[in-house]
Amino acid sequence: MDVDGRADVAIVGAGFTGLSAALHLAMGGADVAVLEAGEPGWGASGRNGGQVIPGLKEDPREIIARFGAGPGEQMIKASGAAADLVFDLIRGHHMDVDYQQSGWIQAAHAQNMLPALRLRHGDWAAREANVAWLERDEMTQAMGDDRYQGGWIDKRGGGVQPLSYARGLAKAAQKQGARIHGSSPVQSLTRDGTGWRLETASGILTADKVILATNGYTDGLWPGLAQSVVPVYSVQVATTPLGENIRGKILGGGEVLSDTHRVLWYFRQDGHGRLIMGGGGSAYESGAVKIYESLRDRVRQLLPEAGEVSFEFAWNGKVAMTTDHYPHLHEPAPGLWAALGYNGRGVAMATMMGRVMADRVLDRGDPEFDFATSPIRPLHVHGLRGIAVTATRAYYRLRDALEG
Ligand SMILES: Cc1cc2nc3c(=O)[nH]c(=O)nc-3n(C[C@H](O)[C@H](O)[C@H](O)COP(=O)(O)OP(=O)(O)OC[C@H]3O[C@@H](n4cnc5c(N)ncnc54)[C@H](O)[C@@H]3O)c2cc1C
What tens digit of pLDDT does each residue of 313-326 get? Predict the structure, then answer.
């Protein structure tokens, strides 16, 4: 942004949250400007594993127990519909994105994980979601080997090339009239009469309403917001394209998969036959870089017949974790909203939260797709987050090793 400007709604951050909000707001007739420090998709949205996963970490029955039937059911509906929203946007706006809505498999790495997966599958089946239980032989068929004990598939899920999807959202929002300014870090956010004033190095934007969509890259713009989440560097690798004989064997139906290890294994094939794999995280970028090698071991274990494994790409980015494992939606002042903390499940959920915030801004709350608002709660031990992340990871690795 190189001149002063005005908008009905200013959005800080051009990832899935901010771009989905911009698109839905612009479609609703609002004059929107997005300010992004880098370029659209520069943050986690352009760097993730591309697994489009419906639902939240906790199961529908746990959501009801925590939030009560009314708000709980709304959150279940919103999170359950989040993956469909992604694919509908891609199709509806003719985005140039490599995607497959072929299902997300959650696989049990040990027998003792099966009961929890059965409950989860049962919760969604009871809500008539498009899900199916996978017996061990069906899982073996999907994987090409018998490493997993069974699991379930949520056919609403799938995979996307994430940076293309972020760019697709940005283009669709622009077509609807939204202005998107890259290389425009917002340095301060202050009250300006009944509206807001956002200052960048080269211009000032005034707006009636503001959405903060900065997730793991949240800085000090709003007091306490950065301290309310734990940013963790998460890691991805992409192999060189697999040989034709191996491509059809592992997830040949185009599904994406995560398993039940506490230090999660998750992978999919992209449209070029590369295996895209993630897993593990670190409080520090230097720690994240060390995880690339452990992922090489995992790929070797997964595809012994592939021989020496070469990575075409390896990268990392920051996810925002919350201690209750839920995304957080805040309205800390009149005309100001923020959503963050997708705990590694933000492809679908960030897209949905952008829509939820757009509905709130336009004052046309959709009872089908709403989400409980909470106050910003800075973590008292935020200064110790590096130690906490490292210790938790070590503990999880030990539990995984003990369970085999
Ligand atoms: C390696 C990795 C793998 C992942 N894998 C998956 C997966 O397979 N499936 C899944 O569902 N989720 C996954 N995730 C998580 C998912 O990518 C995120 O939850 C989601 O992208 C969050 O989107 P967002 O728009 O909220 O945040 P981001 O995409 O991080 O966007 C925030 C933006 O805010 C900008 N910003 C920050 N401060 C300012 C400022 N002051 N002024 C202007 N701009 C600012 C940043 O530059 C950034 O672009 C993964 C994440 C990573 C990093």
Answer: 999 999 999 999 99
**What pLDDT score does 169 carry?**
98
Query: Can you give the pTM of this predicted structure?
Result: 0.95
- Pocket of ligand 1, beta carbon within 6 A: 12-18, 35-38, 42-45, 47-51, 53, 185-186, 213-217, 219, 221, 234-236, 278, 316-319, 340, 342, 344-348, 350
Domain contains 138 = no
Structural domain containing residue 59: 1-102+157-229+322-373
Bridge partners of residue 277, in order along the sequence:
237, 267
pLDDT digits (tens, 9 = 90+) for 157-166: 999 999 999 9
Q: How would you classify the pairing of strands 336-340 and 328-333?
A: antiparallel
Domain of residue 47, CATH code: 3.50.50.60
Residue 194, in any domain of the structure: yes
CB-based contacts of 92, cutoff 8 Å, min separation 6: none
User: Whose CA is closest to atom 9 on ligand 1?
Assistant: 51
In-domain check, residue 380:
no
Residues 193 and 219 in one domain: yes
Residues 339 and 357: their CA atoms lie apart, in Å, by: 8
